[in-house]
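Recall the central idea of this unit: under ordinary conditions, the amino acid sequence of a chain determines the structure it adopts. In this exercise we apply that idea directly, starting from the sequence alone.
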Amino acid sequence: MGKVRKTAVAAAVMVAALTGLAGGRALASTRVVSHGEPCTTGDYYYYSIKTAVDHSYNGDVIEVCDGTYTESFTIYQTELDLESFNLQGATIVAPGYLTPGQAIIEVVNEDFEDSVATPLVSPAALQDDVIIHGFNITGPAAKYGTCQIQAGVFIHEDAIASVVDNVITSIRDNPLSGCQQGYGIRVGSEAEFDEEDSDPGTADLYGNTISDYQKGGIFVDGEGSSADITNNVVTGTFKTKIIGQNGIQVSNTSLESTITGNIISDNFYGQACIKGNCYRATGVLEVNAGQRGDLLKIWRNNTFSHNQVRATITPLPKPAK
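Accordingly, the structure predicted from this sequence is:
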């Protein structure tokens, strides 16, 4: 076999190896979702966001054209860029059947398995996390009754996500109920019995506008969960007698979350004390989380108005010596 032939065979073997690792794909794809004429060019085109997500690979970009999409879906990929092509041009509405976690969008870090392996992608296509950018995400729950919706966006099972510049509204039962769920964005979940079974999430929450929620605007919960919560506008119902709302809550985690530059207002529980039990709505609530001294830092670095309590901090206890 001549030198040229040997080189060609070696190159073919290398390509085959790369193709096998990539499941037949070497580069990330752009997938476009539209109900009509596509708003941009892409490698693949879809009618629903869920279908595009289900067919995506790590590193892919999904561009969603303007329109209203009544659907819910779970993102299993660890690196995916989900974009509204025009800022707040695409609206995602809660359907009759939500994700398994009762969310409109759920992000989980499970072993992503489908017909191919995780692909090789170009360095430019790599992302550190899932990105959800520029959507209107809205309820209320399509079904009447209590405890029908958990979150607009729910990040858990070790998932990492950035939720940026979205308008998230009416994440609540229809009508508003006293069920202790219904968050604009939820990150993680406290283990019910064993801390080792905690269901953590990690998030960067920036520039979102969240309003008309049931229990809270942003909720970060459970050991291992944390979030950078920056420059969001969080607005409660104000003086409702149905439920005590919290604008931002971080609880039951030893990891530090950053809460800065947010505008938090109208969290006020209007019900009188019942049998000595007095409940209050809070702008920022940290329970079994954070450090001593966080209260002053939160007061200084955020803007509060018309909250029953501006901020309350119950820090983690100091470890025993």
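The two ends are 73 Å apart (CA to CA).
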